[in-house]
Amino acid sequence: MPAVPSLKMNNGLEIPQLGFGVFLVPPEETRQAVAEALKAGYRLIDTAQGYKNEEGVGAAIAESDVPRDELFITTKLTNSEQGYDTTLTAFDGSMKKLGIDVLDLFLIHWPLPMFDQYVETWRAFEKLLADGRVRSIGVSNFEIAHLERLLAETDVTPAVNQIELHPQFPQEELRAFHDEHGILTESWGPLGQGKGLLEDPSIVEVAQRKARTPAQVVLRWHLQLGCVVIPKSANPDRMRENIDLFDFELDDADMAEISKVRTGERLGGDPNVFAMR
């Protein structure tokens, strides 16, 4: 079973650098998928209220023989529950579904700047942190302007910003801002959402040089950027492939070849206008 390294967050706690995401895993399949991921060696499990599968994650955790203190569980506040009181209530709901006493990481899923609630929501996150109900708090899909406002108007710097990130959309400016302010970058959609990245000739060329799969090469790219990465697969063989990343490295020529696929275009929603509630 591969030993996954950890990264230190700005609060001194550590997060596994590679985790298992359950976005789009159907609720009825989540329990088995997470159980298989735990068997494969994953210890970071990333879910969200909006995924409607927290109960499956909780069931797999309860049935696993992996000690709780070896697990790192993340969930995200769904967009419709932003606001101080509604955040606290929604958190209670997640904890009941997950069946745990303390959450490792709670994220605001989207900033929704058009509703102007994320600062108030963050203050509820700070209360959950102060009360010891969550060990770390962070955000997802926040742009520099959203982060700057949090830093100016609240007390706790986010530990993590989980963002769309892959070789086609490497987010250099946002990652540099994270580095400047001690915020870890976590990559969602790390393999390009099945929209051609893994078939790109540059990715295939590096994979052939390394005798690895294109997915392994792209995930290794994320690790070498210093990101936390959370690939998703319901296939146990693919889960094992995606965690088998720690006995090879990409050299400068490999990284340069991968950089050729950059388009600068998002595959997911734009956080400045995304308003789904």
Describe the structure.
This protein has helices spanning 27-40, 54-63, 84-98, 118-130, 144-153, 172-181, 201-210, 214-225, 236-243, 252-259, and strands spanning 6-8, 14-16, 20-21, 44-46, 72-77, 105-108, 137-140, 160-164, 184-188, 228-229. It has one domain (16-195, 222-244): Alpha-Beta Barrel (TIM Barrel). The chain has an eight-stranded parallel beta sheet with strand order 3-4-5-6-7-8-9-10. Strands 1-2 form a two-stranded antiparallel ribbon. Helices cover 40% and strands 13% of the residues. It is built from ten helices and ten strands. With 277 residues, it is an alpha/beta fold. The chain starts with 5 loop residues before the first strand and ends in an 18-residue tail after the last helix. Helix 5 links the parallel strand 7 (137-140) and strand 8. Helix 1 packs across helix 9. The mean pLDDT is 97.
